Amino acid sequence: MMAATSQHGGVPARPTRRSVHPLQGGRGARFGLALCWRASRWPFTSGEVRRREFIALLGGAAATWPLSLRAQQPARIPRIGIIDDAPMWHAFRQALRGLGYVEGQNVAYEYRYGEGAPDRLAQVAAELVRRPVDVIATFGTPPTQAAKEATATIPIVMVGVGDPVRAGLVASFARPGGNITGNTVLSPDLGPKRMQMLREAVPNVSRVAFLINPDNASNVATLAEMKIAAPATGIVLIPVEVRGVGEFEPAFAAMLRERPGAVMVTNDPFHQHHIGRIIEFLARNRLPGMYQAKENVFAGGLMAYGASVPDLFRRAAGYVHRILQGTKPGDLPVELPTKFDLAVNLRTAKALSLELSPTFIARADEVIE
After folding, report:
1. Domain region containing 172
2. Count of CA atoms in the C-beta half-sphere (13 A) of 136
């Protein structure tokens, strides 16, 4: 191929330089013109601009670009992943809003639903990790275990778990280590105290069914503790296991064959997802129920005593805030509950023909009339 020549004869023409189009208007235009001028003065080596000088010019000039151009790149906002969102999470979001986090402005929530089923929980936890999110928030032991198996790096804030040490979630309460922290429903003598209150509300009860999820390590630990405490209260404890939807009816039938005088229910996330079904079964068979969360009493349960669930969610929001500010979850001690609620439903008591003493009612924090 013939080389290009100048109009004066056989002297090869200088290579044609590629121009850089200036930005339109203002400082951007001045930057573009300056870039073209500099390019026209640079010597060429093998027909190419010296890359080092060109990159240096671009880097130094980026700060002079119009604000409107730089503003086109929106700031990234933190994402909080929530497994199995439910009305009880309202206190969590409300507390974060009180700390300055406004959804859609400076925080985003990612919701995934496992409905308490172990295989589904593992799937949705993995989805949040792939998203990815900046923090994962969980309620109860099984979702926290699923999140722990899905990631060892994304911080996890657990709410209302049983015993996180026995469940293998943290190394200790004071120094959890790893990527998990949060709070627990554990409190000294809580199980025996619930049995004592049940005896006070239902004086003649001697056989009590205890509905547990054997896949929940905290449920298993609680059952072991309550079996030890039961003889001192004069109660025979009857464990009834339900780990899947198809097990409810067989478990209910087995429970009735044992002829219990009352039933104790935990905060297991899977059981709470089906709490309406449990409450309806107890009402239909005229069985008093002792629950852990007062929200179950609002839904028709007889009575509940345990750590305040809304308070646990509010305190968890504080931990999420500290983590987003840079604190490592392993440096935040697992918190014990500080607020407890006794709730009673007088309408349910009347339907069960139970006469609760005025003294007992006066001790309640919440009374449904």
Report:
1. 79-187+311-331
2. 32
Alpha-carbon distance values, 227 to 71, 193, 241, 258 (Å): 63, 13, 15, 17
Q: Where are the beta strands (DSSP E) in 284-364?
A: 289-291, 303-307, 340-345
Segment 159-182, tens digit of pLDDT: 999 889 989 999 999 999 999 999
Question: Domain for residue 143, yes or no?
Answer: yes
Going by C-alpha positions, the residue among 72, 81, 76, 182 that lies closest to residue 130 is: 81
**Whole-structure pTM over 0.85, yes or no?**
no
Beta bridge partners of 34: none
Do strands 289-291 and 366-368 pair parallel, antiparallel, or not at all (unpaired)? unpaired
Mean pLDDT to the nearest integer, 12-25: 42
Q: Report the alpha-carbon distance of residue 205 to residue 28 in Å, rounded.
A: 83
Instruction: Check whether residue 246 and residue 355 sit in a common domain.
Output: yes
Q: Is the dihedral of CA 83, 86, 88, 92 positive or negative?
A: positive
Cα–Cα distance, 211 to 308 (Å, whole number): 21
Q: How far apart are CA 256 and CA 324, in angstroms?
A: 49
